[in-house]
Each structure stands twice: as structure tokens, then as C-alpha cells.
Design goal:
The structure holds two protein chains of two kinds. By secondary structure, chain A is mainly α. Chain A contains twelve helices and two strands; from the N terminus they run αααααααααββααα. A two-stranded antiparallel sheet of chain A has the order 1-2. In chain A, β1 and β2 form a beta hairpin. Chain A starts with 27 loop residues before the first helix and ends with a helix. The N terminus and C terminus of chain A are likely disordered. Chain B is α+β, with helices and mostly antiparallel strands. Chain B has a single domain, classed as Phenylacetic acid degradation B (Ubiquitin-like (UB roll)). Chain B is 35% helix and 21% strand. In chain B, β1 and β2 form a beta hairpin. The mean pLDDT of chain B is 90. The chains are: A mainly alpha, B alpha+beta. Chains A and B meet through α3, α6 and α12 of A and β2, α1 and α3 of B.
Chain lengths: 326, 103
């Protein structure tokens, strides 16, 4: 009888032993190799200043956007057509403020105090997404925003679930789950209007005509992959153009099947190239809007400034009280 | 700033393990519980929450202790590969039984 060798051989049923952490504190090259190849970073890990600053900027803008994003919708709580819509809209707004709080929390752990983030937002030093700088004109806007703006946001946020910065990635998973409810609410509002009267259908088309431009700008201009640090360091996993293409692929058919017209005659799918072509968005408008020159930018920032001043007594009571008890 | 960080653990359903869900920033434990409920319980998604001050948590992340670079396969089912030994034993037993019947 020939017996096989009974030395325990390595096989794929044995788990590979975990390597030591692939970078020492201070080793920038090893750190970037780690994040570039799918490695994760926690809040208490050493990270190069440039990476920390890049993540902070990204998360802070996201937090600002959630906070400012409630203002267009807030106007409609008292104008909702029925109680269920009022509850759904109020709940959505509550969720978005919660998302802002989750994201400011992530940003705080990177080293910037929350009150400084609020101050920078109110002083116009930090930005928030373009779509929240525009006014709303009708109930149809509420449906279009909750459906398509949230959809465009969720396309970005799903990609961010793989972010190298783990606390952000985990927060994105929670946020994506909650946003999916918002999209269903938005689509339900749009469908209800589209199944109503000619006037209601006209209202939806008119809202879409106004929101299509900002939606196409929302993911940002195509960036040069070679220069996109957020991409290299896996802070984000997909580039702007990929996100826009993904949004179009999912949502253009869903818009057209309702009988709506998309106000871009240049929009179409190129089978050979495997991508959507469209009229180049107005990047000058985008730049102007996000730097505070949008039609509703200052009105909304002014509202936030007033709220911030009016609620100082609450912060004093909470934090002053805790200091007194300590 | 007298705010502290509180780590929040949640239990999905009765009997489930407590799972880390995130953290909140609050000046005291009473507010921390309220904030935790807002963030991790408002939608009825949690059966229970634990709210723990971050500085009360003792962490171990030393890879030398948790995943030392030695062969520890004897501690795992995958470290016992019996396929060839079992084949050999079965063949030997079958052969012996065959020899026995030949006698």
C-alpha cells in the first residue's frame, strides 16, 4: 500500500493567516498602497494629512448638503395634499437631518469641531450640492426631487459604501437603506400626479423641465482620472461620469414610460459606444451655483443663519448645563 | 466643549447579538440615549440599544495577539485534512476483506 504523505498541506480550506497591518504610522507610500488596493482606514488609525483633509472635505460637503437639502422640501409640509403625504414628507425631512448629524459625526472624528463646520457653511466657505440652491414652485417639484434628486444621490452613495474610509462607508450603508424609502415616496407622488388630470401631468412635466439641468450637473463634470485623488485613495469608488451614466441608464426609461418628455433633444443611448450621449451640461452654471450664486442660495443660507442664532440658547443650556454638572 | 462620544450597539430582534451601529455626540448619558434612539431606533428597526461612552471601551487590536503569524491550523476544522488518509484506510480495509474471502 502506498500511503499519501500526512503532512498537513496548505489548502484552500485553511484560512490564510492575516498579514500584519500593511503600513506603519508615518509610511505614506505604504498607506496609499493600502487604500489604493481596497484596504480600509478607521478613525483612530494614522493617516497622511492629505488623505485626512480629502476625506474631511468630501464628508463635510455631504453633511452640508443633507442639512441644506431639507429646506426646499420643508416649504411643502404645510402645503401637502393629504395627511399621509404630510407624514411622509415630515419623516423624510427628519431622516435627512439625521443623515446630516451622522455625517457631521464622521467628520468630527477627523478633527474638525461641528460648530466650525456650521460656521463655515453659514459664511459660505464650504459648499453644498447644486440641486439645493434652486427654488421649488409646485407640489410636482416635491415628487421630482424626492424621486430623481434622491435617486441621483443614491447612485453616488451606493458607490461610497466601498469607501476606503470605513466609518464613512458604514454610514453610507445605513443612509442608502433609508434613502430607498424616500425614492419610493417620490415616485409614488409622481405616479399619483401622472395618473390624475391633464393639469397635474402638465405640472410634473413643467417641474421636470426645470430640474433636468441641475440633475445632469449634479454628479459634477468628468474629471481626469489621473488627477482625481478621491478616486486614487478610494474615498469614492466611481468617477463622476460613471455615476451620471448609471443614473441615466436606470432612470431615463422610468421617466419615459410615464409619458414624460426629457427636455434634452441631444439625449440618447449609443449602443455601439455603450453609453448615453447628451447635451453638455452647463458647468459654468454649476460653478456659479455651488459658490452661493444660485437662485435660492442666499435665502436658504440666511434661514440657516437665523436658525443658528435663534437656537444658541439651546446649545448654551445643553452644554452649559453639562459643564455645571461636571 | 463638554460633549462626549457614545458608541451605539443595536439588537435587530430578540435573541440577536448586539451589533455596533455607530456613535453619537452628547453632553450626558440621558441625551445620549435620546439621540441614539433618534438615530438607530426611530423607524422601529431596533429591538434594543446599548449606549456606551467611548472612553469606557477597552480595545484590543494588536495583530500579534489576535492573528499571530504562526501555523494555528490545528485550532480549526480546516486544519485536519483526512481525505487521503480515509481513502487509504478504506482501500486497506476493502483489500483485507477481499483477502479474507479468498482463503
Amino acid at each position: 500500500m502506498q500511503y499519501a504523505s500526512f503532512v498537513i498541506e496548505s489548502s484552500d480550506t485553511i484560512q490564510p493567516l492575516s498579514p500584519r497591518p500593511p503600513y506603519e504610522a508615518g509610511d505614506e507610500e505604504a498607506f496609499y498602497a493600502h487604500v489604493g488596493s481596497g484596504g480600509k482606514v478607521e478613525a483612530d488609525h494614522w493617516m497622511p494629512d492629505a488623505y485626512r483633509a480629502a476625506v474631511l472635505k468630501f464628508v463635510e460637503m455631504h453633511a452640508n448638503s443633507e442639512l441644506m437639502g431639507v429646506l426646499p422640501e420643508r416649504d411643502w409640509i404645510m402645503r401637502a395634499p393629504n395627511l399621509r403625504r404630510k407624514l411622509a414628507l415630515t419623516s423624510k425631512i427628519q431622516d435627512e437631518v439625521g443623515h446630516a448629524q451622522l455625517l457631521y459625526r464622521v467628520a468630527e472624528d477627523l478633527g474638525k469641531p461641528r460648530v466650525r463646520m456650521f460656521q463655515d457653511l453659514l459664511d459660505g466657505k464650504t459648499k453644498f450640492h447644486n440641486v439645493f440652491h434652486y427654488p421649488t414652485r409646485s407640489w410636482a417639484d416635491v415628487g421630482i426631487i424626492a424621486w430623481l434628486v434622491d435617486a441621483a444621490a443614491i447612485v453616488s452613495q451606493q458607490a461610497l459604501r466601498d469607501s476606503s474610509y470605513a466609518p464613512y462607508a458604514r454610514t453610507m450603508k445605513k443612509i442608502c437603506w433609508e434613502e430607498s424609502v424616500h425614492i419610493m415616496h417620490g415616485r409614488d407622488v409622481v405616479l399619483t400626479l401622472m395618473n390624475g388630470t391633464d393639469a397635474q401631468r402638465g405640472m410634473v412635466q413643467e417641474a421636470l423641465d426645470r430640474w433636468w439641468g441641475p440633475l445632469m450637473q449634479m454628479h459634477g463634470p468628468p474629471t481626469d482620472p489621473a488627477k482625481d485623488k478621491d478616486l486614487h485613495w478610494q474615498i469614492k469608488a466611481k468617477n463622476n461620469e460613471q455615476l451620471r451614466q448609471e443614473f441615466l441608464s436606470i432612470y431615463v426609461p422610468r421617466i419615459l414610460e410615464l409619458g414624460l418628455t426629457i427636455p434634452d433633444p441631444g439625449l440618447g443611448y449609443d449602443e455601439a459606444a455603450g453609453r448615453w450621449h447628451y447635451t453638455e451640461p452647463d458647468w459654468v452654471e454649476l460653478k456659479s451655483v455651488v459658490t452661493g450664486h444660485g437662485p435660492a442660495s442666499q435665502e436658504r443660507l440666511e434661514f440657516r443663519r437665523t436658525s443658528f442664532a435663534d437656537t444658541q440658547w439651546v446649545r448654551d443650556a445643553l452644554l452649559g448645563g453639562a459643564a455645571a454638572a461636571a | 466643549m463638554t460633549e462626549r462620544i457614545w458608541e451605539v450597539f443595536r439588537q435587530q430582534d430578540e435573541g440577536d447579538p448586539m451589533v455596533h451601529a455607530g456613535n453619537v455626540n452628547a453632553p450626558d448619558d440621558e441625551l445620549a440615549v435620546h439621540y441614539a434612539r433618534e438615530m438607530y431606533g426611530r423607524r422601529g428597526e431596533s429591538h434594543r440599544l446599548w449606549v456606551v461612552a467611548r472612553d469606557a471601551i477597552t480595545e484590543l487590536d494588536d495583530p500579534d495577539l489576535l492573528r499571530p503569524p504562526f501555523d494555528r491550523s490545528h485550532k480549526k476544522p480546516g486544519g485536519y485534512i483526512i481525505k487521503h488518509k480515509l481513502e487509504a484506510a478504506k482501500q486497506r480495509a476493502a483489500a483485507e476483506a477481499g483477502e479474507g474471502s479468498d482463503e
